[in-house]
Amino acid sequence: MFIFIILSQILRAPTAKRAVDGTILFDGIDLNTATISGMYRCSGDNPHNPSTGYGQMLVIHGGLDTIAQFYCPYDHTAAFVRTGVPPEIGGEGEWNDW
Fold first, then answer.
1. Which residues face 70 on adjacent strands?
2. SS3 labels along the chain
3. Within its chain, how far is the Cα of 23 from the centroid?
4. Which of 4, 15, 45, 85 could join 27 in a cystine, given CB atoms 3.0 to 4.6 angstroms apart?
5. With 60 as the cut, is the pLDDT of residue 18 above it?
6. Rounded to an integer, what distance in angstroms lies between the CA atom of residue 57 and that of residue 60?
7. How many CB atoms lie within 10 A of CB 40?
8. d(CA 69, CA 55)
9. What is the pLDDT of residues 38-71, one digit of tens each?
10. Of 54, 22, 51, which is closest to residue 37 (Cα–Cα)?
11. What's the CA gap between 52 and 74, in Å, rounded?
């Protein structure tokens, strides 16, 4: 009976199109300023963009002064990653290279 109840709840659950709403970072917006955890679509003409093309970026900032960014350009098979303790989040260091 318990399995049937769980299964019926799963079958009625709405299908998610994405985990969370994303934000578009248009041309000219510096990726160093994307410090709120979330998913971003980058236009490609952004300062500190590791690629020449547009792509998707995941930002993880759990608090205090450490942060990570994962950038996946549409025209590459590899992703770029950087971390840091930059002043944009109150750190006393800087962004590491991609």
1. 58, 81
2. CHHHHHHHHHHHCCCCCCCCCCEEECCCCCHHHCCCCEEEEECCCCCCCCCCCCEEEEEEEEECCEEEEEEEECCCCCCEEEEECCHHHCCCCCECCC
3. 9
4. 45
5. no
6. 10
7. 20
8. 13
9. 999 998 899 999 998 899 999 999 889 999 999 9
10. 22
11. 10
The alpha carbon torsion through 40, 98, 32, 86 (nearest 10 deg) reads 130
By the 8 A CB rule, do 39 and 16 touch?
Answer: no
Q: How would you classify residue 65: left for phi > 0, otherwise alpha for psi between -120 and 50, otherwise beta?
A: alpha
The span from the CA of 89 to the CA of 37, in Å, is: 12
68 pairs with which residues across the strands?
60, 83
- Which tokens go with 74? 């549409």
Query: For the chain, what's the residue count?
Result: 98
